[in-house]
Amino acid sequence: FFSNNLTETTTTQARHNYTNTIVGDRIIKIKFSKPDKILVIKTQYVNLYAEFPSEISNLVNINEISINQSSLNKIPVSMASLPTLRKLLLSAIGTAIINRIPDEFLALKLESFIFSSSIDLADLNSSNIIKFLSSGNALTLKVLKMDNCLMSIMPDEITNLSVIEELSIGSGNLFQIMPEKLNSLVTLKKLNVGADATFAPNIRYWSSVSELINLTHLFFSFAVNIETTLPPDLENCRELKNIACQNSFTTTERIDEFITKLYNFIERNASITGLNTLPFRGMTINCISSTGNPPTGTFQSPTGYVAGSNNGTPKSPKEMLWVLINQYGHTITYTA
Fold first, then answer.
1. Are 14 and 49 contacting, i.e. CB atoms less than 8 angstroms apart?
2. What are 182-222's pLDDT values in tens digits?
3. What is the pLDDT of residues 101-127, one digit of tens each?
4. How far is 270 from 278, CA to CA, in rounded Å?
5. What are the pLDDT digits (tens) for 123-147?
6. What's the Cα-to-Cα distance from 328 to each of 150, 255, 276, 311, 315, rounded to whole Å?
7. SS (H, E, C) 75-94
8. Is 276 helix (H, G, I), strand (E, B) or coil?
9. CA angle, corner 53, sides to 47 and 58, nearest 5?
10. How far apart are CA 165 and CA 162, in angstroms?
């Protein structure tokens, strides 16, 4: 793929469906006249029929490598020789999940590492995740996404992430309770324990978020078994502005419970007047459900409502939504 000096014309082979339906190989000629100018490599939905070229180490200024939905038979350890590499995405890179973070990666200083659906973390020791979280990467990582990695125990070393801002542990992992260790990640801004329609999360119960004082986004989509209450001590998360829980409350009973508890939380903790930048005002909340089960009631002003002074007495979840939107400035997406 890359020649040793990256200044000569080189070739690679790729499967190609010609217009006459004959499947064959074609030669692709690539020439890099200024390899030191290459900063980013991205592939998506590309089948790499050979090993990732070791000559990638010649890209001395590469900052980001993204291999997404592109099959590899193993993680290329040659990436570890790239001194400027800061962002590495290896998401769904093969038909079989890989069982180990290479030892060579321990010397990196990554700011973003995404390996969802790529590395098996069922065994914390053999997967090398403990060593990785104990390496220098723990001092530089701002983004870590390890969804669908078969993880059932959160390693203690997760607390080493001293500058982490975004963490994703949803999808096919086996947590039923949000790991308590996450509450020590005081720099965390975005937490995702949810998933998508492909890999449903197993999470059912929250643990305290009392120390997550910088949290701005909380995602738990498709968590169909999650309790309908909000996490304990969420009132400490005064920077929170985004809650995404679409397709988590898929029955009328569950969405009614969630909206009622959300309303009670906002009424207790948010100012009834003021700018939407104030805590728990002006939030974006997505609780829509594709099953088509809407909350009960009529979307209307409740009896006794006075803008800026009185919420009145909402008698249904839809009246509560009306107050949340009109009194507190929230943007709420729900099944109408």
1. yes
2. 999 999 999 999 986 666 788 999 999 999 999 999 999 99
3. 999 999 999 999 999 888 999 999 999
4. 8
5. 999 999 999 999 999 999 999 999 9
6. 40, 20, 7, 10, 18
7. CCHHHHHCCCCCEEEEECCC
8. coil
9. 135
10. 9
